[in-house]
Amino acid sequence: MSYDPLPLMRAKSFLIETPTTYQSEYVRDRDFLNEPKCRLTFLIRSAGTNEFVGCHYAFASPFLWVLVSQLDAAAHKVDPIWYGDAFFPTIGYKSAQYVKAVSNAEIAMIVRECHTLQWQFP
Hints:
The structure is a single chain. The strands form two sheets. The protein has a four-stranded antiparallel beta sheet. It is built from three helices and six strands; from the N terminus they run αβαβββββα. β5 and β6 (96-99) form a beta hairpin. By secondary structure, the protein is α+β, with helices and mostly antiparallel strands.
């Protein structure tokens, strides 16, 4: 089945992760952000199987990539930003792919590039 993710992204759809909603994704992102060497308040990763459930593309390659923003100690905002193969370096972490970045500025550059490329599709 083919699915066009652009309407979802253009509609500015998002999720809020908390310890009680999307628990496994929340815990994984919290752990990633709490790694001793991590200085990020934003991260980019592949969408989890519980996120955007009605969207079949979240489970297959290419991935749906999401921006995770740490709102506070118990909440993250999750925005879809890219659907396709990664054009950025990634690392595996607890069954997900994360963008390999060392600063929020790097994350911001990738988000800008995703936004620019996304609007080039018909």
